[in-house]
Design a protein that fits this description.
With 375 residues, the protein is α/β, with parallel strands linked by helices. It is built from 17 helices and 5 strands. 39% of the residues are buried.
Length: 375
């Protein structure tokens, strides 16, 4: 992958290119950026640039033998570690799933954590993991001599899945073999072992701007201006979510959210169940995108109450609903409901019963809305 293929992030690209030119390549780096920001893409492009045989001024050439192998993720000195789901006793390491990984990454280099896990388990009933055996395999790979590249590279995607077994890698991070590049790509530093954080140089990746996402949707996906604006507004810098919204082919987010909130406020269990079934019928990726949309509306409601209305990014229909519904929301229950949404997303990703989880969420939201309305 070349830097020019990555959407936005011009400042980070320049920073990475300059470190390579100056010979200031840290052997253990952590690319820290929110989902859909392109952090994984940047890590891959950085390694490709460093190992390019005919580098350009600000990018790899994309044509030499090294670049061609990097473009297909088949370079013998490029290794990936990622969460896996053991399908049987013989398949438990990243290498056992490398074909699926390459195919998925080629189709969508901005893939999300959930999209990858659903690739391994389409029913979403099992949890991913990075095992102690995987950590030892990383050490083994990097102990070998490079086949042809200047730097042997291992990219560890989502080190949040490393618990205490991650400490196996500490000596490697402190004293890596010569001409070795270890790059971790994380979304939440709070979930990464502190012992790992302290041994890596952090490269911070900001979320994408709405304008960049709009431009990409229009130029790369033939989306009209209005639809691109709506998707970018809801995605809030997450290109992975933007793609999910686009590919879902559904335009009923607002109608479904409004009907669900009215049912929650009225404590109408039958209507709550009907709305929940519609939401859950779209699958885990749709549920995740719907929760993202719900959080978008809640943030707008907070701005409506306590900030400048000009900061609100809603359609006229969404703004009217929020305006009418605002008497049920306050500075107290908006954070509470937001936390409940985030917890629900976490539980569903980790295979909690979706119907029960959404019913509990609905009843909780109804309770918090009623309490505020009576205040």
């Amino acid at each position: 992958m070349q830097f020019k293929e990555i959407f936005g992030q011009e400042g980070v690209k320049q920073q990475l290119v300059q470190t390579a030119k100056d010979g200031r390549i840290s052997h253990a780096q952590l690319f820290l950026g929110p989902e859909g920001s392109g952090a994984l893409c940047l890590a891959i492009a950085y390694s490709q640039f460093i190992n390019c045989l005919r580098p350009l001024e600000n990018d790899s050439c994309g044509e030499c033998s090294s670049c061609l192998k990097f473009q297909k993720y088949i370079h013998p000195d490029l290794h990936f570690t990622f969460p896996t789901i053991a399908t049987d006793k013989k398949k438990k390491l990243s290498n056992d799933f490398i074909s699926e990984w390459r195919e998925t990454l080629l189709a969508n280099p901005y893939l999300s954590e959930l999209q990858w896990l659903l690739t391994l388990d389409d029913e979403g009933k099992k949890q991913g993991n990075i095992t102690s055996d995987e950590c030892r395999d990383i050490i083994r790979k990097l102990s070998l001599k490079a086949y042809e590249a200047k730097f042997k590279t291992v990219i560890i995607w989502l080190p949040e899945y490393l618990s205490v077994e991650g400490n196996i890698l500490l000596k490697l991070l402190e004293e890596p073999p010569d001409e070795t590049l270890i790059m971790l790509v994380a979304q939440d530093s709070d979930k990464v072992l502190g012992t790992i954080l302290s041994r890596t140089q952090i490269v911070r990746i900001p979320k994408l701007s709405d304008q960049i996402i709009q431009n990409v949707l229009i130029s790369n996906y033939a989306v009209n201006q209005q639809e691109a604006e709506n998707i970018a507004r809801i995605a809030e810098g997450n290109f992975s979510l933007a793609r999910t919204l686009l590919e879902s082919g559904r335009s009923d987010y607002h109608q479904l959210f409004a009907a669900w909130m009215r049912a929650c406020y009225g404590n109408k269990v039958e209507e709550i169940n009907a709305c929940s079934e519609k939401i859950l019928s779209g699958g885990k990726e749709f549920v995740k995108s719907f929760i993202g949309y719900s959080l978008h509306i809640l943030r707008a409601a907070f701005l409506f109450h306590y900030a400048d209305e000009r900061l609100i990014k809603l359609s006229a229909e969404e703004f009217q609903f929020m305006h009418n519904f605002s008497f049920t929301l306050s500075s107290k229950n908006i954070p509470e409901i937001t936390q409940a949404f985030n917890q629900t997303a976490y539980e569903i990703e980790r295979n909690a019963d979706p119907k029960i989880t959404f019913l509990n969420l609905s009843l909780y939201i109804g309770n918090r809305l009623h309490k505020q309305a009576k205040a």
